[in-house]
Amino acid sequence: MMKLWYGQIVSVVRLEMKKTFFSKRGLWVYLLAFAPVVLYMVHSVYATRQRQHLAQLATEHPISQAAFNGIKTGLSRDQVVAKLGEPYWQRTRYHHGGNGKKRSFVFYRYTDGKNDVSYHFEDNKLTWIHRRDPDTLPKSQLIFATSFQFYFLRLAIFFGCVGIFVNLFRGEMLDKSLHFYMLTPMRREVLLAGKYFAGLLATVVIFTSSTALQWWAMLWQFERGVIVDFLAGPGWIQFGAYLSVTALACVGYGSIFLAVGLLFSNPIIPTAVVLLWESANPFLPPLLKKTSMIYYLQSLCPVTAPPDKNMPPLINLLISPTEPATTLTAVTCIVLLTLLVLVLASRLARKLEINYGTD
After folding, report:
1. How far apart are the C-alpha atoms of 119 and 109, rounded to whole Å?
2. Which of 202, 209, 196 is nearest to 27 (CA)?
């Protein structure tokens, strides 16, 4: 019997593959998944060209670090130029005050080959200095962690699973083709398992591919020696952890939205409820945090995303700090929650009735 069920599950997966990967209803999932790859690649190309441009400018007009350190607010433009020479970029604009007096605002930019320093003059006096530091690998790791946890997990994978898993049953209902499965001598639980594994295979392939491409696009801007040293240290471990978290997110959210597509004719409301619950996780008390999928997924992330410095103090006070779950606990809870949802969905699938007239 197990051999028969296994063969039926494999057959369902094969039938669903083309519909899952190439469905017109799911094309937007690819946009959600691979948009960050494009952004990382564009940033890496820009950062590489900017680094080369600054290095060339520094070669043509070298400035010592001591000269930069000697520039303080309050100096005049002539004093700054005497210390640093002519800027490689400048802009001047004028503003007419209410008393008819014209004020000048001048912006100068200098570089030492790595840092880009901007000077802001008001009426010939230096009032503001801004140093733009170059991208470093630790800084890029924090940016990647923030993007991964707050966009990729909470939005891209979440809605990607909505688009793929909900349509495994709802799409068949809309196409009026689900009855073909029902006419076969196949248990409903087996059909549900086959559809789940088909959706899981699709989402894991799509989103882990995106994670891998994002990772390498993020690293592409750095020199080969920096990348080799990083991978020889924590790099490969972090890479594997991000891929694992991505796959587990597909496992957990996939089961939830497969059940949603099976139980609800209109999946918008239950999807909104799940999204609200997952989004409210930072503000929930510790016990309730552990009932959401995102708590365990974030616990498995290798780098903690830094808090938003611009967050209003009142919102910051509402955040409930909680210790992350251990790796074993997080993986176990995700698997158990997934199995629980699939068992409940399989029991309800036994009572599944087709009524195309209401869809």
Report:
1. 6
2. 202
Compute the distance between CA of residue 245 and CA of residue 252 in angstroms, rounded to an integer. 10
Q: What are the residue ranges spanned by the domains of the chain?
A: 2-49+136-358, 63-132
Q: Are 98 and 83 in contact (CB under 8 A)?
A: no
Instruction: Enumerate long-range contacts of 319-328, CB under 8 Å, 24 or more apart.
Output: 319/282, 319/283, 320/282, 320/283, 320/284, 320/285, 320/286, 320/289, 322/286, 322/289, 322/295, 324/298, 324/299, 325/290, 325/295, 325/296, 325/299, 326/299, 327/299, 327/300
Q: For residues 154 and 294, is the Cβ–Cβ distance under 8 A?
A: yes
pLDDT at 228: 93
Rounded to whole angstroms, the Cα distance separating 35 from 79 reads 47
Q: Please report which confidence band the pLDDT of residue 192 belongs to, taking 50, 70 and 90 as the band edges.
A: confident
Which pTM was predicted? 0.85
Tokens of 66: 């001591």
* 63-132 to CATH, choices 3.20.70.20, 3.40.50.1470, 3.30.1450.10, 3.30.470.20: 3.30.1450.10
Q: 210, exposed or middle or buried, with CB in 10 Å at 0-12, 13-18, 19+? A: buried
8 Å CB contact between 87 and 74 = no
pLDDT tens sequence across 87-121: 999 999 888 766 667 788 999 999 988 889 999 99
The number of C-alpha atoms within 13 Å of 342 and in the hemisphere containing its C-beta is 22
* pLDDT at 183 exceeding the cut of 60: no
For 194-200, what is the mean pLDDT? 90
> How many other C-beta atoms are found inside a 10 Å radius of the C-beta of residue 317?
8
Assess whether pLDDT exceeds 60 at residue 234: yes
Alpha-carbon torsion angle 233, 215, 135, 304, nearest 10: -70
Q: What is d(CA 67, CA 71) in angstroms, rounded to the nearest whole number? A: 7
